[in-house]
Every structure is written in structure tokens, then in C-alpha cells.
Amino acid sequence: xxxxxxxxxxxxxxxxxxxxxxxxxxxxxxxxxxxxxxxxxxxxxxxxxxxxxxxxxxxxxxxxxxxxxxxxxxxxxxxxxxxxxxxxxxxxxxxxxxxxxxxxxxxxxxxxxxxxxxxxxxxxxxxxxxxxxxxxxxxxxxxxxxxxxxxxxxxxxxxxxxxxxxxxxxxxxxxxxxxxxxxxxxxxxxxxxxxxxxxxxxxxxxxxxxxxxxxxxxxxxxxxxxxxxxxxxxxxxxxxxxxxxxxxxxxxxxxxxxxxxxxxxxxxxxxxxxxxxxxxxxxxxxxxxxxxxxxxxxxxxxxxxxxxxxxxxxxxxxxxxxxxxxxxxxxxxxxxxxxxxxxxxxxxxxxxxxxxxxxxxxxxxxxxxxxxxxxxxxxxxxxxxxxxxxxxxxxxxxxxxxxxxxxxxxxxxxxxxxxxxxxxxxxxxxxxxxxxxxxxxxxxxxxxxxxxxxxxxxxxxxxxxxxxxxxxxxxxxxxxxxxxxxxxxxxxxxxxxxxxxxxxxxxxxxxxxxxxxxxxxxxxxxxxxxxxxxxxxxxxxxxxxxxxxxxxxxxxxxxxxxxxxxxxxxxxxxxxxxxxxxxxxxxxxxxxxxxxxxxxxxxxx
Length: 605
Ligand code: ARG
Prior knowledge:
Low-confidence stretches: 1-25
Strand content: 5-15%
Mean pLDDT: 92
Bound molecules: arginine
Strand order of the largest sheet: 7-6-5-11-12
Shape: globular
């Protein structure tokens, strides 16, 4: 038996629609896409205005009483838009899947035909499941997303946490939009501090502890040796002792000394090994653990050669400097090589970018780094541009604001583990308040971990990236209000409804007869579900997770208001089935959007 789904009912060949818009959506056509096509066709027929102009002018609405799509007439440059809106509202009202058109000043509000809306949205979600909302591309493009990038032996601070969760989300989003994604972690694993760390390890290192807790142990050792170093400097013998030893170790490292490399390699690989486990709690898998240490001498020399060839560098006191003020005053001057010949963070970044282009052939590369490095990133990008790399335009810095007050019982947060553990423990405490419920949860520790992670992620993504926010355990873990646990709660509630109605098979839901589904709240819910593919595209344009989070809360609130009044259990099949289909589709959309953000939706909590 083949299922015929009434989607993409109207299709126009892409030849007639030579537009910016039709360049974008390849793959599944969703109900709102059909509405867009119907509007542009109908409007073109009565006015002669170009299809593409209309398609590009159509906007999503932020509240549904303003329609499923909105057309601001000034955008298509008609004279006397208010009068025209009134006239067109009448002429357009029954074309294709357009159900209703309202004129509001110079705006036209379009509403999908209700039957078409439900019939083309609900079964489609149930059929497409995890793929609903996504886009397929004929020519898959490649993106490298560099994110997280902590520094070995140094604290994992809030900036790294934000980079990790925002980067994880962006990677998922690119994938959903049909890109091939390389997730890359660029560790801070090079520099003088590794000389110091090696000296410290000789004094304070312990093999067993290193094996068990490499990140914590290396950090402890680093703190201790830094204290020793400070004492030494006060005593004025900084030329010899620790500092001298550290410098010579790092020199050995830079010269490729086998023994030095061996020691450092162990620090690095044990740390990575541990990081992999922690990242998996956030549902993140890196394809590449790169790092400052991995940038080859050749690519850095290539960079220095181009600097000279393009006349970018001046020598000042033996150091090589690029004066960026000639292109932009605020960019100042930057050193790209020190007088002792050692390289710098910036030069390593230039070398790394050259290598990545060569090896990974990306169409785009995204750096997810805190806004504290805004100036640095502009300098870096300007340099690549002046090196005449045509791909410099394909690089993007995704920045974000600061987090205040991220601390745990033990004080300031230093490790990612510690934050996640604390979130899990606090979530577990709250779950234990409801003895009945927790007794039904298979693995409370695991569920608490997932809820804790959700709390952290949603708190982070609730407002625009660039905003600062205050880390607040109580607020983020609350089961009420717009929090991660509330999303999880809504998801698990819908799961529970599906469990108790499991007599109705998915096949029955997909073939449901929706002609009696008229409850306005449920219809509103379906309208929201139909928006999801548009929400994804909008989030992709702005690269803002908040776009999706805001949408998710709208869906949850709508689910809540339906759930209380519009029942499934105890109803006859012809009423129960279409209702359950809508709830089930809602759960699927929640599931898809939550997963995209990096949450693992729970079945019970
Ligand atoms: N490790 C750096 C830090 O902690 C972040 C690295 C960002 N990436 C880059 N390509 N510079 O500040």
C-alpha cells in the first residue's frame, strides 16, 4: 500500500520562478512553500508583478493572528498600498491553498486553507519523522565549524562552554540544511606554558592521577608550578631555575626534540581522551581534534613568505609586524613573528586556515569564539584578505557575549565535568521530590544528566548570542517557566500520551480523517507545526539558536493549553485518532528541534 500525501499539491517549474528564493529550497516542499507559490502565482496573474519579487517580499509572521505569511506591499513597490491591499484581499481569497486574506493597512495577511493545512502538515510530519523540517541539497556544500577549543592545563571557562553548545548547535543546523559538516576542536595546546607544565610535572606530577584525571591533574600541576615561578621571580632569580628550564623545554619542543615531544604528546592525548567523554554528555562528537600544535612549520612559513611577497610586514626591533591601520584605523598593528623567531597565536591561525582550505576544501568555515576576540578576529580576517586568498570571504566569526557568575558548590568552575555534574545532581534532587514519578524512571542518573544539560543549554540559547547573561542554577533548573526542564517535561508528557494510546498505530494516525478536527486550539497548534521548516531557515540565516528556542516555547505553551482541554483518552476512535495524530506530530517537532539544539529528549522524567 502506497501512502499518498497531499503535499506540494501545486508545483511550478523552477524555470518560471527564476528567483533568489527558489535557489534556496531544494528537496521537500512544505505547506508554507506551497502557500508562497500559490500567492505569487495568483498575484502575478492579477497584477503582472514578477513572481520572484513577490516571493522575496513574503515574510513570516511572529504572531499567528497576523496570518501564516505576510506581504508588506511597500516591498513590492505598488502605488497607494492601502487601497491596493483592500482590493487584492478580495480578489486573492480563493486561490490554491490560500484560505483567507486580510488587508491590514499596507499589509496583506495570508492564512492557509485549514483543511489543506492539517492534511498536508500532520501526516507529513509523522511520515518524515526526524527529517521533518530539513532540506536536502543536490550539491552538498562543505562547512568546517571550529568550536569549543579549550586550552590544555588551563580552566575551561564560560566562553568555552558557550562556544561548545553554540558550535554544536550550528553544526547540527548546517547538517539539517543539507551541508556536510566537519566539527573541529582547535585546542590551545602550544606555547611557553607547556614548557612550564613539563617542569611542573617533574616536581608534582603523578602517573596514576594523570591517567585517571588528566585535565584536572595537569591544571593542578600548572597552578602549583606557577606559584613556584612567582616566588622565584620575587626572589629575583628568574633567569635560571624554573623559568629557564621551562624556556629550554619549550625550545626543545619547537625544535622537535623527541623526548620533549613524547612528554607533551601524552599530556595532549590523555586530555583529548577525557574531553571526548565529557563532550559526549553534551551529545557532541568532534571529527577532528586539531590544535595550535598541529599547525605545520611549512604552512606558517608559507604565510610568512606571502606576508613578505605582498609587502605586508615591517621589521621592528627584530619582530615582524603588520600595520593594519592602512586599511582600518581600529585594527591597529599586530606582531606576526617575535624577535626570537617564535610564532604567535595569530600566525598559527593563519597557517591553520591555509592548511584547512588545502585539506578540507571547505565552502565555508565558521569560528565560534567569544566576542572578547572580536578585534582579534577582524585582524585575522583582514590579513587573510590582504594575502589575496579568495576564500577569505568564506570565513565567518560567530561571536557571543559573556556569562556572569558561573560557579558551583566548590567555587569557580574550572572543568566542564564539574558544571555538568552539578547540573545533574541538582536535577536529580528536584526529581526526587516526586517519589512516585522517579520510581518509574529507568535510569534516574542518566535522565537527570540529560535534564541538567538541557537546563544549561536552554539558559544559554534563550536570548541572542551577543547578549550577556547571568548563570542562575535555580532559574535554569525550574520545571516551570521557559527552561530546558520545561521542554523536557512537555516532551515526556506527550510521550506518555503516546504510550497510553498505543492501540492506535502510526499507520492509523497517518491515515487519520481530519475532517472533524475543528478545535481552534488544535488548529493553532498545527499552524505552529507548519512553521517549523521556515523557523529552521530563519535560524540558519541569522545563525541564532534563540530563533528556535522561542519557537519551541510557543509550541510547548500551545500543547499545554490543548492538553488540558482536548482529550484523547476515553474518546471514540474517530475523534481520538486525529487528535492523537496532532499530539504525536507535535512531539516529533519538539523532538527534532530539541535534538538540533543539542538536547536529548527524554521519555519519562
Ligand atoms: N583556545 C582559544 C581560547 O581559549 C580559543 C581558540 C579559538 N580559535 C581560533 N582559531 N583562534 O581563547
